[in-house]
């Protein structure tokens, strides 16, 4: 008679193979989760930048639509606008600089020097070598980027004044 051999349980080789498969599956799962979190962070950052950029663009466009007069600096970094908002005469200034980002001011009197305007939006930059503001026939073209953790979000457009009188006082 031969001795009785039991086939119950697993061998050491089977245990090692099962552990390796488990480690590989766990590693892939962690990798997928980390990539998903990174992508979500980038999407949220770009979405917030898009919202902030749309705010800059829409405020600038609204100002120019109601402009009575406007002036663009020679280097294209500053726009001054005398505008009529809600039947009130307002002086507004928009500027972009590498150091401060987007600056904005609104006052009923003479605009101070552009470098003293409060920072409105951070992480705003000029797009490539193009100026922030370019004068067109009866308005301006704007061109800027918002930087994010993931990528730069580009904004560009044109807007014209409907009621241009050319009277700049008391704004500048």
TrEMBL record:
Membrane listed as a keyword: yes
UniProt keyword Transmembrane, yes or no: yes
Top-level taxonomic group: Bacteria
Ranges that cross the membrane: 12-34
UniProt keyword annotations, A-Z: Membrane, Transmembrane, Transmembrane helix
Name of the protein in question: Prepilin-type N-terminal cleavage/methylation domain-containing protein
């Amino acid at each position: 008679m031969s001795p009785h051999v039991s086939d119950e349980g697993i061998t050491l080789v089977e245990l090692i193979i099962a552990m390796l498969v488990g480690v590989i599956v766990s590693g892939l799962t962690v990798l997928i989760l980390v990539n998903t979190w990174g992508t979500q962070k980038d999407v949220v950052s770009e979405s917030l930048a898009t919202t902030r950029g749309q705010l800059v663009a829409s405020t600038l466009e609204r100002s120019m639509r109601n402009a009575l007069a406007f002036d663009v600096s020679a280097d294209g970094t500053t726009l001054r606008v005398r505008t009529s908002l809600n039947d009130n005469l307002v002086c507004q200034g928009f500027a972009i600089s590498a150091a401060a980002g987007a600056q904005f001011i609104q006052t009923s009197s003479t605009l101070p020097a552009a470098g003293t305007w409060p920072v409105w939006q951070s992480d705003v930059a000029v797009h490539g070598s193009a100026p922030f503001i370019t004068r067109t026939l009866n308005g301006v073209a704007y061109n800027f980027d918002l930087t994010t953790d993931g990528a730069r979000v580009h904004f560009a457009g044109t807007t014209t004044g409907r009621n241009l009188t050319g009277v700049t006082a008391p704004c500048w």
